[in-house]
Request: fold
Amino acid sequence: AYFKRIDDMRLKNPRLVGFGISDRESFLKASNGASGAIIGSAFVKLLGNAKNLREEIVEFVKSIKGLK
Reply:
């Protein structure tokens, strides 16, 4: 009902969801009914803990996309 009301407003910007998204499952749930999802804290945590930054970013993105 909430997203339906937002759709009825015919806003020009896409609707994005961005709370608690840290893996593919939460990404898929969040983006259901939205144009996309924003991954914030999980990505920042990855940046802070990565030993091989480039490789770990690539693997993280692949895991979200379901390519792993």
About this structure: The first strand starts at residue 16 and ends at 17. Residues 53-65 form the longest helix (13 residues).
